[in-house]
Amino acid sequence: MPQDILYSTDTTKESASHHIGQASDEHEFDQILLDEESFYSVTPQRLADHHARRCKSKLVVDAFCGCGGNAIAFARAGMDVVGVEIIPDRVDMLRHNSRIYEVPEQRLSLIWGDFIDLARNGKVSGDVIFLSPPWGGPWYRQEGVFDLTRPLPGLGVAVDELLKLAMRCIRQRTRESGELFGVACYLPRNIDKSQLKRLVPVGEVWELEKNMMNGRHIAYTLYTHKLATVGI
């Protein structure tokens, strides 16, 4: 049976947690490039580092990489990363930000494209597929419960279809490498957990982790297969 695993992380600099990486000085911090949406949607640095520890593998695909909050954390943790982003300006920003944090070029490959199309056509695979899709801007927080069956903004698919596509990608990689890792999906804090349980494919091993910062519940992260602690 799935269960909630509470992971608490704390940061004394709340403002810094909303930007990529942890700048070593103010000058470096000021060089980070983010567009308006990324400024409020980028994964907090402490949580991105935690995701990197949980997703440790040889090759991670960050399916909606944006300006690089998670992709950079994965690369800094020593993994090879494929970042997929449909907005070209964000690809350029991620490339810039990766240089600020001295990510080796060979660690990070960027694809300007649509992850859903790539996945449907078998053109992307990885040990781990990390999903942090657009939830609809800051307005989704005003909803009582985030409806996981509703197509996601700009994607045309809901969470269940997205998970199925991601699992297809990891199985494609498994046929090549012989090892199955899993999918990680970053989810809003106002999801209905019973609804999520119904959406996860039957028979899959999975874990739902509650993510905390400064004593505040900010999100959930779903892990499957080898990434999950349940049943392993």
Automatic annotation (TrEMBL):
Q: In which organism is this protein found?
A: Lotharella globosa
The terms describing its cellular component in GO are: nucleus
Spell out the Polar residues composition-biased ranges: 1-10
User: What's a single GO MF annotation on this record?
Assistant: RNA cap trimethylguanosine synthase activity
Q: Which domain of life is it from?
A: Eukaryota
Q: What is this protein called?
A: Trimethylguanosine synthase
- Provide the residue span(s) of the region labelled Disordered: 1-23
Q: From the UniProt record, list the reaction(s) this protein catalyses.
A: a 5'-end (N(2),N(7)-dimethyl 5'-triphosphoguanosine)-ribonucleoside in snRNA + S-adenosyl-L-methionine = a 5'-end (N(2),N(2),N(7)-trimethyl 5'-triphosphoguanosine)-ribonucleoside in snRNA + S-adenosyl-L-homocysteine + H(+); a 5'-end (N(7)-methyl 5'-triphosphoguanosine)-ribonucleoside in snRNA + S-adenosyl-L-methionine = a 5'-end (N(2),N(7)-dimethyl 5'-triphosphoguanosine)-ribonucleoside in snRNA + S-adenosyl-L-homocysteine + H(+); a 5'-end (N(2),N(7)-dimethyl 5'-triphosphoguanosine)-ribonucleoside in snoRNA + S-adenosyl-L-methionine = a 5'-end (N(2),N(2),N(7)-trimethyl 5'-triphosphoguanosine)-ribonucleoside in snoRNA + S-adenosyl-L-homocysteine + H(+); a 5'-end (N(7)-methyl 5'-triphosphoguanosine)-ribonucleoside in snoRNA + S-adenosyl-L-methionine = a 5'-end (N(2),N(7)-dimethyl 5'-triphosphoguanosine)-ribonucleoside in snoRNA + S-adenosyl-L-homocysteine + H(+)
The UniProt entry, under CDD domains, shows:
AdoMet_MTases
Check the record and name the InterPro entries matching this protein.
RNA_cap_Gua-N2-MeTrfase, SAM-dependent_MTases_sf
Family as reported in the entry's similarity comment = Belongs to the methyltransferase superfamily. Trimethylguanosine synthase family.
